[in-house]
Design a protein that fits this description.
9 helices; 288 residues; Rossmann fold; alpha/beta; eight-stranded mixed sheet; globular
């Protein structure tokens, strides 16, 4: 990864995202990719992930409303949420809450972490990816999460072929006029993205609920984000989304997190100047 230079404006703020977004101008963000705390009892360094459900949803509504305000009319909000055996409807509750806050569900992507499929030739089975085993006689292992693509209008154009894949049946290239002779089709809404293998969680991935860089990249690419796109993650964690944006050459990024311990990882992960972890507002009360 290249070092952050003058062409990159990455602002990492150690503060509550609702307070931070209130200082931002309207429609100043093009793409949001984030995964908020799920309120499923995950042990974070500072955040209490065991709030009353009503209190939690009220808090989610507060940051979703601010996010709606700062998102551009042609922007995309990619919301990654997972479930648990005891809370199977949680992702759908979050999606419906986003709709109540003014968003449209434009697409629903399924992030597959692990999958087992028959071998193309033979009688065996291939298993790839990683998942957290569930020790239960009632529930099976949960190997996927949701990514809801939310927009203000439901009519935001996407770069469908940014994640395109070759046709399995090459005769389709000539059969369908929309291919324009290209051996590439839309990948669809199922993304197999395994976690990278790590040797030590403390050293390699010191966060209890991070997502892989490729998941962020998929969201940015399918939106059609370019170098000048303004990207934000209000729940930055260990800056995975910032690193993904930087590797795609995106020059404008803003992130929030309340835990300075996680944000310190930004110093190493972004391999650039030490980030501003206590960014003050300017004279007009705005964050640059």
């Amino acid at each position: 990864m290249q070092n952050l230079g003058d062409d990159f404006h990455y602002v990492i703020s150690c503060q509550d995202c609702v307070s931070g977004m209130k200082l931002m101008e309207r429609e100043c963000v093009d793409v949001v990719v984030t995964s908020p705390p799920y309120n499923l009892g995950i042990h974070y360094s500072r955040y209490d992930d065991t709030a009353d459900r009503g209190e939690y949803l009220s808090w989610c509504a507060s940051w979703m409303r601010e996010l709606w305000r700062v998102l551009s009319n042609e922007g995309s909000f990619f919301l990654n949420v997972g479930a648990s055996p005891k809370e199977p409807l949680f992702p759908h509750q979050m999606a419906l809450l986003a709709v109540e806050c003014g968003f449209h569900i434009q697409n629903t992507f399924h992030w597959v972490k692990s999958i087992s499929i028959p071998e193309p030739k033979g009688d065996g089975t291939i298993s790839v990816g990683h998942f957290k085993p569930i020790n239960s006689k009632r529930f099976v292992n949960d190997c996927h999460e949701y990514v809801f693509h939310l927009t203000k209008t439901g009519n935001v154009a996407l770069d469908r072929l940014a994640l395109g894949v070759p046709y399995q049946d090459k005769s389709n290239i000539a059969r369908w006029g929309h291919t324009e002779g290209r051996d590439k089709r839309c990948r669809g809404n199922v993304w197999f993205i395994p976690y990278d293998t790590i040797q030590s969680r403390i050293n390699d991935r010191p966060h209890p609920a991070s997502f892989p860089k490729q998941l962020v990249k998929n969201c940015l690419l399918i939106h059609g984000a370019g170098p000048e796109s303004r990207v934000m993650d209000p729940f930055l964690g260990i800056v995975t989304s910032a690193v993904a944006a930087k590797e795609l050459g995106i020059r404008n990024f803003k992130g929030f997190d309340i835990d300075e311990e996680y944000l310190v990882v930004a110093k190493t992960a972004l391999k650039g100047p030490e980030p501003d972890l206590s960014e003050p507002p300017d004279a007009e009360g705005k964050i640059a």
